[in-house]
Amino acid sequence: xxxxxxxxxxxxFFPRPLQVGVRRAHACxxxxxTAATWPIDQLAGDTPRGFLGWPEGKRFAxxxxxxxxxxxxxxxxxxxxxxxxxxGLRSAFYxxxxxxxxxxxxxxxxxxxxxxxxxHGLTHDGLLYASHQSFLRCSTEINDFLNDWQSVxxxxxxxxxxxxxxHELDIEYxxxxxxxxxxEPQPDGIRTIFPVSQWDQQxxxxxxxxxxxxxxxxxxxxxxxHKDTALWTRKLDWIVDHGGMALLVTHxxxxxxxxxxxxxxxxxxxxxxxxxxYVRQRYGDSCWYALPRDVARYWRDSVATQxxxxxxxxxxx
Length: 317
Hints:
Elements (H helix, E strand, L loop, with lengths): L4 H7 L4 H18 L26 E9 L2 H15 L6 E4 L8 H9 L3 E4 L12 H18 L3 E2 L18 E2 L21 E4 L6 E4 L7 H7 L6 H12 L3 E6 L4 E2 L10 E2 H15 L3 E3 L2 H11 L15
């Protein structure tokens, strides 16, 4: 399924409240229609061929990812990082190269403190995959940013993906897909809570696809209006039972920190903190707390290069 390019060309003409209202109405319909496969798709728990477990016998892997979509998100990045540092955790922040000014200082501080930096598209207009030709033109500039930022990971805005095209990027992994998420504009989940080895057709180039495996924060707290983290903790427990990868996507753009003025379409920091504390208190050292690049390299070395390339999971429904 291709991204809905016409929608993104028209979206800029509609005010934000209208966009959110349309998404809420759409979500009500989609939630009823996909109750059997969201938030948990039972087929996604199948253990992939060749996978023998996580490092040091850990029960599951936890990956924390933040997509930074605006100047507000960039300003909040270091504050969110401090919340994780206080719990002994590290995460990955993905910045838009041509979106909201120079983030060099923020990226440098984050990297020096053990956080990973990734590239989040080129712009955030939803048109990266408008055509293969336009993607090829953008890929040259994206590769320049990957090299300049010393990044090995890529995440497309709005979770758009064309897995074969992504071989044009100089990446070790991509994280632009999900196991199941009917509320995204390109809702074709790859139906697994494990990484996927993505070889090109000639089996010469490999990157690892890391699907996110929770509903995104904006979906849970703004679109669906949940007031607690039960949706996340329920899914986490299921992922742990199946020994998978718990990859959570949040956005510092939508987090309200203590003392800040509440903005439209935001949620309280305490919700994210409660989820982190739940993981720590319930699972402790049985979890592999990993950065995306660590998971991708482990999968590449222990699974991808030890087995034949699997069928492209994009075709699995």
